[in-house]
Amino acid sequence: METERISRRNVGPGKSGQWGIYEVPKRVDAFNFEDFSEQLKNYVNTKGPWVALDCSTTTFLSLIAIKFISEQADILVGKNGGMAIIGPTEKLKRQISIYATLDNIMVVSDPEKLSS
To answer: For 25-54, how does the pLDDT look when each residue is reduced to its tens digit (9 = 90+)?
Structure first.
């Protein structure tokens, strides 16, 4: 599940900031949440403090997955970093905003927008 399609890049905030990009599966539900959460937590711990979640192929996130992502975003903000979500559909953005705030997460249409 953990694939870094785009290697760490110099597009993060400031000259020293770099975004690590984590590809989120098409669906995160009760069947794969445990693996997803373990891998994302490990990714945040090793690739942070700037982590972008590539949701361009993601169609469903369970409530527990949304809450977990929000918690990880808070952790990154506490480390003077941040989280971004790349390429979510409008439906997925609405789903996330119902169960968690997007105030602590940057939402961009593609990875190139991370530098702006």
So the answer is: 999 999 999 999 999 999 999 888 999 999
Q: Which two tokens stand for residue 57?
A: 């192929």
R_g over Cα of the chain: 13
Q: The pTM is what?
A: 0.83
CB-based contacts of 51: which residues, under 8 Å, 6+ apart?
19, 20, 21, 22, 43, 44, 72, 76, 81, 82, 83, 84
User: Burial of 15 by CB count in 10 Å (0-12 exposed, 13-18 middle, 19+ buried)?
Assistant: exposed
Q: Which is it for strands 82-86 and 105-108: parallel, antiparallel or unpaired?
A: parallel
